[in-house]
Amino acid sequence: MRISWRSSGNRSSADAKRQGRGEYEFSDQFDGLGPRDVLNRRIIVELGSGLEINTQLEGRWTRSKPTIRRIDSSSRTPLIQLQLAAVLLMPKPIRTDRSWGHYRPVMQDDLYGILHINLNKVELVGTDALRIGIGEVIVGNAMYQAEELRYAERLELVRRCWHRKDAINGEIGGLLAEHERQVRAGGPILERGLEVVKQLQEEMARSAGDFGIVGNAPTGDVLPSLVEAVAIADVSSQPVPLDAIHPEQQELRRRSVRQWAQHAARGAESARFRRQMREAYRSTCVICGLQLPPLGGDGNPGVDAAHILPWRHYDLDVVQNGLCLCKLHHWAFDEGLIEVRKTDSGYAVAVPPEAEERVAAFGAGFSAEFLRQCQGAIQGSRLPENQGNWPSQAYLEERRRAFNPEQSN
Q: Which of 222, 8, 24 is nearest to 119 (CA)?
């Protein structure tokens, strides 16, 4: 047995012209049960892993068809396809086939439909309930009419995101927690459930560049990006804290800086830090003054949030421990080729003598001239408007000692 979308049929009728949408009906047989046998019973969807939702929907014989309707016709309870899509964190499907899209990806808000919900369990419960289980979900649009979504696999990915929601934290983690509460509550998925999915789509689209995730649209399937963000948040390796390394071990201290920078680029806390930095500095490189905001749908900016002190041990994902830098100057800063120093009047960029020596030793083909071009005072307009977010003098001085312990005095 399955639940299938059916076209409105007679489009000449006033209702069909106004609605322009199909309906969901029971069809086929399951262990001797047919569509007539399951009518007038509230539908309970067994999600798996001990989860179920009481949809507050029922099968009803309407216009000679076994359609699915709200038990309370005056309620705003979402219909079966919307509740299922919300559980699985899918984009919002639509019944109006005349509005379906023609291209991939198939699943985009209001541009596709759930065509069939194949059932692997149909059970009459008492005198008034029907418990169903889901096998596969078939989605499509105006061009692609049979794309299979494996229900069990997708639900497991959703559960994985729930399980690691605390690792992501922030707005995304909070929305995942709310989504889990709604599904586990066991009642119908209401309008708020649909809103949570939409907010997750929008939040992940805004945060994708901060996580280093490419191609997440605010109207598309959010689950792949969430799974990737969870995997990023699960990175647990940490470098040796700088306070555990003797100042004379200069190379080891420098290596710890680089190692931490690589780790920080992957963490969920760092994703939030990168956004805060981008907003505070208006996506402007503090060294060269180029403003490079995210322009595409993937939310990727042309600037990075560079940590001043690589001390994850002290939880320094704060704006005062960062500089907003373009890709080139981020590289130069991490390599110790340029420094930012606090001055009496503000901040300035300097090229350490040790950096000049390293560049000279490299030989022909690489010049320190591009480093010297950025030396001097940093314009105040490149700094955050809130002076409380300006780079910490103490952090800058400690970083200088980490790279150049012989110059610490």
A: 24
